């Protein structure tokens, strides 16, 4: 079997770019397959429908660039349309039911498993479907004996170290605490990342502050706000965005993307060194 090595690297880290013989020559006991999961959904008046797909692709591309040739990891084709029915009140949103998404992701993994692959990372960039991915991961373990790990880029946290040249402009960190808690959709974080990755797609003349209704509920109904409720996006803000996009900065976006990519690389290294007897029969 062919192993990744600095002397004989594959021509691409993307599954779709390889030939059948190149896939077949991989060390399938060691290879880690990354399945990117995103969404095509509204992100307010200033961002395109492609935000989740763009952020996923940008983080993943940067992570793959950082990987040593000796680490056998490949990106499967992205599942761009996800479960986005919380955004269906706005034109442009495409959504699958949870059951359809479960079947789609499962059958992609099953296709790879038939070729002998047993390590999967479900790399998700849409906040509306982590629970769906958890269901898929357990099912892959139970039925296929696969190692299945779910990873959401937004669970990697944000960078805490600010470069010296930016510290004067960011004395309190990247963004205010309230924005980090409530800016969940098209706010400062996602808009900053888009300004870094896909600046031509950002409608700069439509940037604004789109405060979440949850900010008021925390004061008036704190137990409800803490427990949470099933919301549609318009319940949080009529625009479809939630957060202060006016705080966005491409330099901050670059820091966030680099941090998320570094954490994904760390995760892949850990998976690569897991004990062979981790999963029991």
TrEMBL record:
GO molecular function annotations of the record: hydrolase activity, acting on carbon-nitrogen (but not peptide) bonds, in linear amides; metal ion binding
Biological process, per Gene Ontology: riboflavin biosynthetic process
Keywords from the UniProt entry: Hydrolase, Metal-binding, Zinc
Family matches, as InterPro entries: Creatininase-like_sf, Creatininase/forma_Hydrolase
Pfam families from the UniProt entry: Creatininase
Cofactors required: Zn(2+)
Family to which this protein belongs: Belongs to the creatininase superfamily.
Protein name per the record: Creatininase
Origin organism lineage: Bacteria, Pseudomonadati, Pseudomonadota, Alphaproteobacteria, Rhodospirillales
């Amino acid at each position: 079997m062919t192993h990744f090595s600095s002397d004989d690297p594959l021509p691409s880290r993307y599954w779709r770019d390889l030939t059948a013989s190149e896939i077949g020559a991989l060390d399938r006991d060691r290879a880690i397959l990354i399945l990117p999961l995103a969404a095509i959904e509204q992100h307010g008046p200033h961002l395109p429908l492609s935000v989740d797909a763009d952020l996923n692709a940008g983080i993943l591309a940067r992570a793959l660039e950082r990987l040593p040739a000796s680490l056998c990891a490949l990106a499967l084709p992205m599942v761009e349309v996800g479960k986005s029915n919380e955004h269906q009140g706005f034109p442009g949103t495409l959504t699958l039911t949870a059951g359809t998404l479960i079947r789609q992701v499962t059958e992609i993994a099953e296709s790879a498993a038939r070729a002998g692959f047993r390590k999967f990372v479900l790399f998700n960039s849409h906040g509306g479907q982590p629970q769906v991915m958890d269901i898929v991961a357990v099912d892959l373990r139970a039925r296929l004996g696969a190692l299945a790990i779910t990873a959401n880029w937004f669970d990697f946290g944000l960078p805490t170290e600010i470069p010296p040249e930016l510290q004067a402009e960011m004395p309190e960190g990247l963004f205010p605490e309230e924005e980090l808690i409530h800016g969940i959709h098209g706010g400062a974080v996602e808009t900053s990342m888009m300004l870094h990755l896909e600046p031509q797609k950002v409608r700069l003349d439509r940037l604004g502050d789109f405060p979440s209704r949850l900010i008021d509920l925390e004061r008036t109904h704190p137990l409800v706000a803490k427990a949470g409720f099933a919301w549609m996006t318009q319940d949080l803000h009529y625009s479809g965005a939630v957060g202060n996009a006016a705080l966005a900065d491409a330099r901050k976006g670059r820091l966030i993307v680099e941090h998320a990519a570094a954490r994904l690389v760390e995760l892949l290294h850990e998976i690569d060194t897991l004990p062979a007897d981790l999963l029991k029969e």
